[in-house]
Amino acid sequence: MTTSLNPTIANKQSNILPFLPTGNFYFSYGIQAFKKRRFDAAVKWLKKAIELSPDEPLYPCQLSIIYTEVGSYHAANQLLSEVVDSYGEEYSDCYYLMANNYAHLGLLSDAKKYADIYMEQAGDGDFEEAASQLIEMLNSLEEEEPEDEYAFDDEDELIIHQETAFYHLENEEWEKALTILHEMMQLFPEFTLAKHQYAYALFHSGNQDEAIELEKQWIVADAKDIHSYVNLAAFYLANGQKELAFEHIDPLRNVYPMHDQQKLAIAETLARAGYYQESVDRFRGLKNKLVVGRKGYYKWFSIASYQTGKPSRALNLWEKGCKQFPHLSEEVGPWEYQ
After folding, report:
1. Residue 282 and residue 270: Cα distance in Å, rounded?
2. CA–CA separation, 188 vs 181, rounded Å?
3. Given pLDDT bands bounded at 50, 70 and 90, which one contains residue 3?
4. Alpha carbon 280 to chain centroid distance?
5. CA 44 centroid distance within chain
6. From CA 246, how far away is CA 139, in angstroms rounded?
7. N or C: where does the chain have the smaller number of CB atoms within 10 Å of the terminal CB?
8. Which part of the chain has CATH 1.25.40.10?
9. Whole-prediction pTM value?
């Protein structure tokens, strides 16, 4: 026995139009979330808008502003560079936004370069006053600290590579990180942090034995290299080899390095090992803006704070970390960490 649809119902159903969200629909949601400072939601909606309307430059521009707000300056400039490459002078405001991001990263020559381009192209644009103030500040810094032109350019190039590597590492894009770190090892052989980051990415990409072997070779060659101890401790802890891990953790407890990246590495390692109060003391001594604000800073400082009886500080750090690194919210929170 067959049944047929009532003609009246069929006619009504045929008049129903399916709702197909557009890029503008998701963009509006992203703007609302941004105004409420719900940055992780704003990023999600704007990425959907870009996916549906890849030829609309306004959407990546707005996403770049959110990245700037949460301190992801390199990610912001990647988006802005793509807009500039495609639309050029039509979106001249991008040049000021890029200049602002470079200034935050400490890349002063690049900041001035893009601020000057903005002033040349935008005329009386929306950011004219802000760009003028930025250029004035950069000029005063140049007068106070004259640099050798070529050395300064090399330093800028190193920092750009370093920020790119950090971006991929913190987003767990291991293959991309390995590519940029391998290039850094060729271009800047004296920048030893790159090889340790390479080993870290290698370990997490599934090549654990190779990563451990590299660090064992390097620690024999230089027994004072803090990052070899840090990496081997992290690798052995991840593999459940606690006895081997603590052989490399214990020496770090009496080391107080000068460089902020090394300070951060030791603070994270002490937190991983359960030396929470010692870890908190190390984290509280960090001030450098290129270190404070890393994913590891928020995660492990939050865990160490919670474990030492500071739940409010732990929650505040965790929330800030999740806003800047949405993937962090998928990990175990400090209140659940064992």
Report:
1. 9
2. 10
3. very low
4. 22
5. 16
6. 50
7. N
8. 57-144, 152-255
9. 0.56
